[in-house]
UniProtKB/TrEMBL annotation:
The keyword Transferase is assigned to this record: yes
Location of the region described as Disordered in the Swiss-Prot/TrEMBL record: 335-368
Molecular function (Gene Ontology), one example: transferase activity
Protein name: CoA transferase
Keywords: Transferase
Pfam families, sorted: CoA_transf_3 (PF02515)
Length: 368
């Protein structure tokens, strides 16, 4: 869908590269601009074949060019790339692109129709704009982290970087909207994308519920307080998710386990004093996760297994979709779109792998 769109990616680590990963999977040509030492993600955390796993996970379908943006030569080359691009994404701290000579104002001079997206923690201006921050900070200040608490009321440390990933999706949403505007008017656009702001946008239900009811945990039906919408431990120490909110699904569940007497307890709570809740807990503890998985497939009752990453491809829910696969170099990948794997996917590029090709192309274009 994005064939013919050229994206220049000056971002590092996760939010920006995840955004351009998704754009590349949609067919855009993504040129990753790295410093001489490479994207820091190449050298962070566990590695495979010399590159960090986070880098390998988020940089397929891209070309890599190394430029020293602290030099005049590097800045000139960067502007030549921008001149022939449709989109620019950067994730430097506010003010850095100005010092490097590749900020939006400079980019607009060489390419008036450019769509330019700056991804930062708190935006380009404001009280916290110059503060260092990471995913956990954005989760915390947005109110999102407070929605993940254990039974004792303490926030649970997430093992997925929700703000980074959702921030990348949000950046793409605004980039694609800007491209539509450009198609209609010929005008470019500057996108100031704050990761913390993006997470606040997930709190639509919670802020109105707090205002009207005083509840800080959003929709009461969905917070695990009801027996029909909760997590249950299985015989083998795993968990199944039951989400039978509608009466028909709850009835299907009760009939499936031969307990029609539970139907009237649809809206009862997950309190220890609730006999039905204790009986449901005992029921789930009597079968393995595999048995409950099969039950959920046989009975239309919104019952699914809580799976680990290694089990995604093995579940019938994604049968035949190949949402997780090994690239040509053996690097395991996850599809950003269900149809993505049906297209050719290139491995993450070596550092500066396409530098000579792209510089030669730019020289040719300058001389014609």
């Amino acid at each position: 869908m994005l064939k013919g769109i050229r994206v220049i990616d000056f971002s590092f680590y996760l939010p920006g590269p995840y955004a351009t990963l998704r754009l590349g999977d949609l067919g855009a040509e993504v040129i990753k601009v790295e410093p001489p030492e490479g994207d820091p993600a190449r050298n962070t955390g566990e590695k495979k074949n010399g590159d960090g796993l986070v880098f390998l996970a988020n940089n397929r379908n891209k070309k890599s060019i190394t430029l020293d943006l602290k030099t005049e030569e590097g800045q000139t080359a960067a502007l030549l790339l921008i001149e022939e691009a449709d989109v620019v994404i950067e994730s430097f701290r506010p003010g850095v692109t100005s010092r490097l000579g590749i900020d939006y104002e400079r980019a607009k001079e060489v390419n008036p129709g450019i769509v330019y997206c700056s991804i930062s923690g708190y935006g380009q201006a404001g009280t916290a704009s110059n503060l260092g921050s990471h995913d956990l900070n954005y989760m915390a200040v947005s109110g999102s982290l407070s929605q993940m608490k254990d039974k004792g009321g303490s926030p649970v440390h997430p093992t997925n970087t929700f703000a980074d990933l959702f921030g990348g999706v949000t950046a793409n949403e605004r980039i694609l909207a800007a491209l539509v505007k450009k198609e209609r008017t010929g005008e470019g656009e500057y996108v100031d994308l704050s990761l913390a702001d993006s997470m606040v946008s997930l709190m639509t239900n919670h802020v109105i519920y707090e205002q009207e009811t005083g509840r800080e945990t959003g929709i009461s039906l969905l917070d695990g307080e009801l027996v029909c919408y909760s997590l249950y431990e299985t015989k083998d120490g795993r968990y199944a998710a039951l989400a039978a909110l509608e009466k028909k699904f709850w009835t299907n569940f009760c009939d499936g386990v031969n307990r029609p007497d539970w139907i009237s307890s649809h809206w009862s709570t997950t309190e220890e004093s609730n006999t039905v809740f204790k009986e449901i807990q005992s029921l789930f503890a009597g079968k393995t996760l595999q048995e409950w998985t099969l039950f959920g497939l046989e009975h239309d009752c919104c019952l699914t297994p809580v799976l680990e990453p290694s089990e995604i491809n093995k579940t019938p829910y994604f049968q035949g979709k190949n949402l997780v696969w090994d690239n040509e170099d053996g690097t395991r990948q996850a599809a950003t779109f269900p149809q993505h794997k049906s297209r050719i996917s290139t491995r993450p590029p070596l550092k500066g792998e396409h530098t000579r090709e792209l510089l030669s192309q730019m020289d040719k274009n300058q001389n014609t």
